[in-house]
Amino acid sequence: MVADVQALHNQNEEILRMEKVFAAQKAAFARHPYPTAEERIDHLQRIRPLLVKYQDEICAALNSDFGSRSRDETRLAEIMTSLEGIKYYSKNLRKWMKPQKRKIGAAQWPGSAMVTYQPVGVVGVISPWNYPLYLALGPLVGALAAGNRVMIKMSES
Known about the structure:
single chain; 157 residues; Aldehyde Dehydrogenase, Chain A, domain 1; globular
């Protein structure tokens, strides 16, 4: 009974903490809702040196979590794919940010139409357990490239 009450209390504290983080993220987005391409690329490029610098620690942590996981698998499937994603988004996001013209029907002539891509705000990423780094960083990189703020929830298993 006491353990159940303590678990419920801890869960409520975690919910309150996440609500505060979400409110802070929303406020930050409201202050600066349209980051430039340069700002977005900077956000992405800040991740790269961390992955490279801490790759041994990442490999050790995932090996510990899984009980036995090859460092080569972690480097290839988690770190290298994340680095490639950062490179890909950094290279292409300027092009993706440009408005795109669309064809219109004859009834709308002489009008024009275009799609302008805009950030949506705060994006949630829930990462599964099997490839936790890449399956968190992949969506993170895409959301940052799109100009969003991101909250990540890692798997508890």
